[in-house]
Amino acid sequence: MTPKSPNLIRCAWPGNPLSIRYHDEEWGLPQHDDRILFEFLILEGAQAGLSWDTVLQKRENYRAAFDGFNPQRLARYDRRKLDSLLRNPGIIRNRLKIASAVRNAKAFLDIQKEFGSFDAYIWQFTGGKPKVNAWRSGQRIPASTAESDAMSKDLKKRGFNFVGSTICYAFMQAVGMVNDHSVECFRYAQVSRVHR
Q: Active-site residues: which are they?
């Protein structure tokens, strides 16, 4: 639940009630549930070239349109289903992004078979635990890192697309593989404690 105190110091980027709630309750919190990891992977890919606010505003529509981000269902989508998604004004109607969600669902299921879970696979890129950074407010956070480069390369090799290094780093931030809250932000210490 988002704290109501007006004196809270946050990261600089959340600028509206939806993004503030997302920042305060989800962003940077370590995730190990495969369905949630899959949701973020698809949403980060959908965001490419757009603002995260655009995606957040459409998130509930995505959940409805994509069967709650169930990868088994998504992997079975046919051309008729893809055409209906392209007519859905509640999501980002980009043919390549929608097709990639289906392709990525199939690759996601292959990883689950090989590793037992997507969680076991994806967290290896940070050695199984979050990387805790110490950015100060106003410092420029990198758009990619050696870890996101390695993740991107491996995901592409396994058949994923819309998983460039910048998208992978945004995914890592969202699911708590890295803590990129500024050290002044009230969430920095809270999320760091969860990391231990």
A: 22, 44, 52
